[in-house]
Amino acid sequence: MKPKLILIRLAILIGILLVWQFSSGVLIKEFFVSKPTKVAAVLAKWIGSGDLFYHAAITAFEAFAGFLLGAFVGISIGLLLGRAKGLAEVLDPFIMAFYSLPKLALAPLFILWFGIGLEMKIVLTATICFFLVFLNTYTGVRSVSREMIAILKLMGAKESHVITKVVIPSAITWVFAGLRISVPYALIGAVVGELMASNRGLGFLLSSSAADFNTAGVFAALCAIVCLAALLNYGVSVAARAMMPWERTTEQREFSI
Amino acid sequence: MSDLIVFENASKTFSTPNGPIEASRDINLTVKRGEFVTLVGPSGCGKSTLLNMTAGIFAPTTGKVLYDGKPVDGFNGHVGYMTQNDHLLTWRTVGGNIGVPLEIAGLSKSERKARVEELAEMVGLSKFLDSYPSQLSGGMRKRCALARLLAYSPETLLLDEPFAALDAQLRLRMQMELRSIVQTLGKTVLFVTHDLDEAVAIADRCAIFTRGPGTIRNVLDIPLGKERELIGMRHNPDYVELTATLWDEMAPDIRLEEAV
């Protein structure tokens, strides 16, 4: 990355923090917005005691496990229904009905089924991610060039060849689009699950700070969640670059029409 | 020589939102095993439709298409089809694209590598094995598609304007290469082209189409011999004579266009 770009971004960040620091207690009551120095102090305390890593690790695990589970099932079913047109047509109204349901509304049910432990958050996250990945994969599989498939079939390709050599690689851009939009939703699943019922995780840290009227603690927990989201996003980008090397050459190619 | 591809009163009508479009009508053509047949005619006269029916992409609306004595039913595994669009896999390198049919055939990695290098050499893409199709020119993409087609060595080659995007020298080289491959391996070829010189130079026979609905007006024999020297072709009086005949055959359509 260009150093100039980093400098500009850093300047904006420092600017925001300064405005926050000096307007707090002057323009707005400190009770509501706290102060960056106090937030930093809370973060330092949590880091020192190891609390932050303990809770962040739990949330990260829930989000990541739910994300992987939802993505795996979403990609599999997306591939299956994308290739089996008849089945997709039959199931369409059921899928759309389930898709329209706000997935967070299932949380109470999952608490009943799985208790308030990690499993419930993982299942909730997986349910949310599933639809995003499934719908993208399905669309990607449906938009695979039929000509390309015909050419391969003339070469004697079986369905398994068609799937591995044409369908998956050409749908993978769609799959990654689905994965990328799933990252923030994975955190929604994990954190909201924790807010509802739990005794650990960043969501728990957030709600218990709020219950103590500890605004600095709330902001510190939010900061930790943002960092976790950035980390997950970065992971998906790295995976995307590794699995789609041809995209990079297209981007880097000198432009001509 | 036995009959390999037989069209019997084959017609194809496409239904479109704007009503049916008749692409070809009453096609009667018999292609013998090992024969090189070129198809010429104005754009949109159903030449590609013939190739599609031979490959089994779709069936004729009426009439029959027989391959090796049996009606074509579904994808015809005996033919290799090089379409006007190269349909390369954009996520694979040139080497990866040429290797696709070899992977399907189940060749080992080392066997594939050797064969891919050999084919790339033949079409002049040795230096571009690791390039992606998006980095290639149109002509290079065509050559890559041709190498991929030859990789699995189908019995019959269906070629839809394969050399249209190539420069004159390269086109001549590819024509010679194709004829010699076809000759040595005993392939049957259906070859669509808009280049009348090419249609005569490489063919054993040339089918002339008329404007839509496409029918075959005439089939011209090209008795230039199996072994022919394409480089010196322009000085061959028989070739000059045949090309002139072909131009005359096409003339009614040219006048028709003037009238329109």
What is the topology?
The complex is a heterodimer of chains A (257) and B (260).
Chain A: H1 3-23, H2 30-33, H3 36-49, H4 51-83, H5 85-100, H6 107-114, H7 118-142, H8 146-154, H9 159-196, H10 202-211, H11 215-243, H12 245-252
Helix pairs in contact in A: 3-11, 4-7, 4-9, 4-10, 4-11, 6-7, 7-9, 8-9, 9-10, 9-11, 10-11
Chain B: E1 3-16, E2 19-32, E3 36-40, H1 47-55, E4 62-67, E5 70-71, E6 79-82, H2 94-105, H3 109-122, H4 138-151, E7 156-160, H5 168-185, E8 188-192, H6 196-201, E9 205-210, E10 215-221, H7 237-259
Parallel strand pairs in B: 3-8, 3-9, 6-7, 7-8
Antiparallel strand pairs in B: 1-2, 1-4, 4-5, 9-10
Helix pairs in contact in B: 2-3, 2-4, 3-4
Structural description of this entry:
The complex is a heterodimer of chains A (257) and B (260). Chain A has 257 residues and is mostly helical. Chain A has one domain: MetI-like fold, CATH 1.10.3720. Chain A contains 12 helices and no strands. By secondary structure, chain B is of the alpha/beta class. Chain B folds into 2 domains: 3-78 and 155-259, 3-Layer(aba) Sandwich (Rossmann fold); 87-153, no CATH class. Chain B is 37% helix and 26% strand. In chain B, the strands form 2 sheets. A 6-stranded mixed β-sheet of chain B has the order 6-7-8-3-9-10, with helices on both faces. Chain B has a 4-stranded antiparallel β-sheet with strand order 2-1-4-5, covered by helices on one side. In chain B, strand 7, helix 5 and strand 8 (188-192) form a beta-alpha-beta unit. The longest helix of chain B has 23 residues, at 237-259. The interface between A and B is medium-sized, with 22 and 25 residues.
Integer average pLDDT of chain B = 87
The CATH H-level homologous superfamily of chain A? MetI-like
Kindly report the oligomeric state of this protein: heterodimer
Overall outline of chain B: globular
SSE order of chain A, one letter for each helix or strand: HHHHHHHHHHHH
**Of all protein chain pairs, which has the greatest interface, and how many residues does each chain bring to it?**
A-B, 22 and 25 residues
